[in-house]
Amino acid sequence: MIFFLDTGIVEEIRMASEWGIVDGVTTNPSLIAKTGRTQKDVIKEITSIIDGPISAEVISMDLKGMLREAEELSTIHPNVVIKLPLTEPGIAACKILSRQGIKTNVTLCFSPVQALLAAKAQATYVSPFIGRLDDVSQDGVGLIREMRTIFDNYGFETQILAASIRHPMHVRDAALAGADVGTMPFSVLKALYKHPLTDKGLAQFLEDFNRSKK
Ligand code: G3P
Predict the structure, then answer these.
(1) Catalytic one among 40, 44, 64, 83?
(2) pLDDT tens digits for 21-62?
(3) CA-to-CA separations, 148 to 42, 47, 55, 66, 156, in angstroms, rounded
(4) For atom 6 of ligand 1, which residue has the closest CA?
(5) Ligand 1 pocket member 55 (CB < 6 A)
(6) What are phi and psi of 121, to 5 degrees?
(7) I want to staple 181 with a disulfide (CB 3.0 to 4.6 A). Which of 91, 96, 161, 189 is the partner?
(8) Which structural domain range is residue 26 located in?
(9) 159 lines ligand 1 (CB under 6 A)
(10) Whether the CB of 57 sits within 6 Å of ligand 1
(11) Would the pLDDT of 145 be above 90?
């Protein structure tokens, strides 16, 4: 499973990059706003830390504006992936950019048929928001399962990017359901390392080792 970090905070990205298991980064307008910096500055700095796909989202609602923004964002670095909303103009922009060889991430996907549209537009990634579906009593991981079946039925190459991951169980369940990628906040990535028996076992090993030296 490919791991992306879902953040605009470069200190988190720097720290996680040292762990050697971060393959890329996703951002969105809310995450960029939290940094108090411009999207261009943040994305540029991220590309200097992580050598992998970095998603940057367009703000425009219309096709022309989306394509203009995509062109600007693409000039920042070849690793920039253009994140587009799952709307009529967003899907149209996705098809045009895909034909130009520009990588895309269709975001705010909440249903299997929406995912089918992104796959038909040859999106590189499509992002089902599993946490937000769970929030409204719908089955976030179930959506990934359905998407996996549909994409495999037709041989679509669009990668399923599990997003809106809130806790380690989401990572486990998304992996079991066949998501290609999981994007998660720094706190969730950090939590993946944790197990009380690991801590307990380590403490015991150290205690035994130190006792044997006496
Ligand atoms: O990747 C999308 C993610 O940023 C949304 O997460 O927790 O705001 O639903 P959340």
Answers:
(1) 83
(2) 999 999 999 999 999 999 999 999 999 999 999 999 999 999
(3) 32, 30, 22, 28, 10
(4) 164
(5) no
(6) -85, 10
(7) 161
(8) 2-212
(9) no
(10) no
(11) yes
Identify residue 46 by its one-letter amino acid code. I
Closest CA to 177 of 152, 153, 141: 141
Tokens of 79: 């690793």
Q: What is the pTM of this model?
A: 0.96
Q: Which of 109, 89, 106 is nearest to 158 (CA)?
A: 106
For ligand 1, atom 9, the nearest C-alpha belongs to 164
Q: Would strands 80-85 and 54-57 be described as parallel, antiparallel, or unpaired?
A: parallel
- Residue (of 195, 164, 194) closest to 182 by Cα position: 164
**CB environment 6-43: b (16+ within 10 A), e (fewer):** bbbbbebbeebbeeeebebbbbbeebbeebeeebeebb
Residue 80 contacts residue 56 (beta carbons within 8 Å): yes
Residues 6+ apart with CB under 8 A from 112: 143, 146, 147, 150
Total structural domains in the chain?
A: 1
| % of the chain surpassing 90 pLDDT | 99
DSSP 158: P
Q: C-alpha 19: how far from its chain's center?
A: 18
Instruction: Give the model's confidence band at 213: pLDDT under 50 very low, under 70 low, under 90 confident, else very high.
Output: confident
The residue-averaged pLDDT of 171-199 equals 98
How far apart are alpha carbons 23 and 61 in whole angstroms?
29
Q: Kindly report the CATH number assigned to the domain that includes residue 42.
A: 3.20.20.70
